[in-house]
UniProtKB/TrEMBL annotation:
Protein name: Uncharacterized protein
Organism of derivation: Adineta ricciae
Cited PANTHER family: ADF-H DOMAIN-CONTAINING PROTEIN, ULP_PROTEASE DOMAIN-CONTAINING PROTEIN
Length: 244
């Protein structure tokens, strides 16, 4: 299970992830100087997440993403379009379950509070200046690693990563720029915002249900064109849930 949450202030975006695999759990935090909450950012965050999973849990073959229904970066046709290509892009099968926007909270909600509170406390006590997102990242990563070493733990409480805004802009420019035209040609799922669960069954077809436990399943096939299905992008993203 992976839970992704989004928090941002004037200088920093903090995207947090709760990952559960069997009885094991990991917390991840992606710190960035990119301030927009977009599918492009989510895309990049998922690349980081997929690489982490494949490195640390190489036997995992499928992920179940769980997020709220925020349409700007999670619950939209473009995200579902990319979900159909998840296996090709990241080497992992995937499905996507949406909770109500005000529900679906978990321990992942505390990751952002932990990092921000620790940073705020340290800056006040030790008079350390953190003026930008990179400072916050370097401090948080170092602090988490040092805390793990002092506790004789193999892994930190929070795995901290940095996502440069230039990387997000590159994805937005080189890939997402033509997304509206691609979706216009491929077709869109009507009522996507009222649907709760999506599962790709091929590179062009997804199954979806009104609820994650619904027995009434529908399918939608994106129309194939000569250029739509060459999707060798760097990233994708959302909140997740992992099945072993």
């Amino acid at each position: 299970m992976i839970r992704l949450l989004w928090h941002s202030q004037h200088q920093v975006t903090l995207f947090t992830i709760r990952l559960t695999i069997g009885n094991e759990q990991r917390n991840l935090a992606i710190i960035s100087n990119y301030m927009e909450h977009t599918t492009a950012f989510v895309h990049c965050a998922q690349k980081i997440l997929a690489e982490f999973i494949k490195k640390n849990f190489p036997l995992i073959e499928k992920v179940n993403y769980v997020s709220d229904g925020t349409s700007a970066h999670f619950k939209n046709n473009f995200s579902i379009f990319n979900l159909a290509h998840h296996k090709t892009d990241f080497g992992l099968d995937a499905r996507w379950t949406f909770t109500a926007t005000v529900h679906g909270k978990s321990a992942g909600d505390g990751v952002d509070a932990l990092l921000k509170t620790t940073a705020r406390h340290t800056t006040l006590i030790k008079n350390i200046l953190m003026s930008n997102s990179k400072d916050f990242f370097e401090f948080s990563q170092k602090q988490q690693l040092e805390t793990a070493r002092r506790s004789n733990k193999d892994t930190p409480g929070v795995h901290v990563f940095y996502l440069e805004s230039d990387e997000v802009e590159e994805v937005k420019k080189n890939y997402l720029k033509s997304s509206n035209e691609k979706l216009r040609l491929a077709g869109t799922i009507q009522g996507v915002r009222s649907t709760r669960a999506f599962k790709p069954i091929s590179r062009s077809t997804v199954q979806y249900n009104i609820t994650s436990r619904s027995t009434q399943t529908k399918t939608f096939t994106f129309k194939q064109t000569p250029f739509i299905f060459h999707l060798s992008i760097n990233v994708f993203a959302i909140s997740l849930d992992l099945d072993t």
